[in-house]
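Its record is quoted verbatim for completeness.
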Amino acid sequence: MHPPTSMRARDPRAAARTVLPIIAVCAVVMAAFTTFGPNSVSATTRAASWGTVALLVAVGVVVLLVPAEWLDRHGVFAGLGLVGVVLVCAMNVITRDPSAAGQAFLSFPVLWVAAHLRRGAVAVVTAAAVLLDAAVLLLLVPVEPALTDLIFFGSVLVTISLMLVRAGDVQERLVAALHRQASTDSLTGLVNRRVLDAALASAPGRPAAPARHRAVLVDVDSFKAINDQHGHPVGDDALVHVAGVLRGVVRAGDAVLSRMGGDELAVLLPDCPPDVAARRATEVLDA
């Protein structure tokens, strides 16, 4: 069972590339603290710290070797955010560290998730960070300073997460708009030659697939004469009309409707027997 879209990455490959240096930084800092710093004061903290380093290295290897799309499809990226929050809070409890320095490590999983995952995952991981941080603070320090730290640090996490999510949404909409502009003929609304070529190139079962596909080519008779006698706006209207006729005869889900250029339109019919293609061509001509 795959997670819902709201729990997945906007760009799985970018998420994987970004999480690797974060894991490396956390592993190096944890190893340094364990070797030279406060995490070396007892056998328990040393064992927990080196165990965390080993886990971080293992996670980094998995992210490096396993395709990012597979990790995203199985909810691994959202899980990494939650695991990161739990690890930070667990280490703060084990080392008895309620300081701002200890809490600061919560920013790594939260901000990474906010920058690369969608709203659902951001909400879950940010809420988990705030709630677990509250539990750690209330466990280690008196209520009043715990609430003060929680309000300040929680506000920072929530605010930055919201800003990153909003920025990601805006960027996603802009990219989608650019993609539509790059793939759609502005006059007829049909896809352009680039999309038609891509549909042929990505046809299942290539190189045998093109033999099972059929194309209906349409051009407007005397199109140059229409432009010369009535002007280009009338010629444009003629192309728009023909494109509308194609949409009425051929469902977009069954074919790729494309403007190849000038007055040439094309209908790509995937996995279409010759007799069906001939019938479709006749329907287009009759329309």
Notes: Residues 205-210 have pLDDT under 50 and may be disordered. The first helix runs from residue 12 to 36. The beta strands are 214-219, 256-261, 264-269. DSSP finds twelve helices and three strands in the chain.
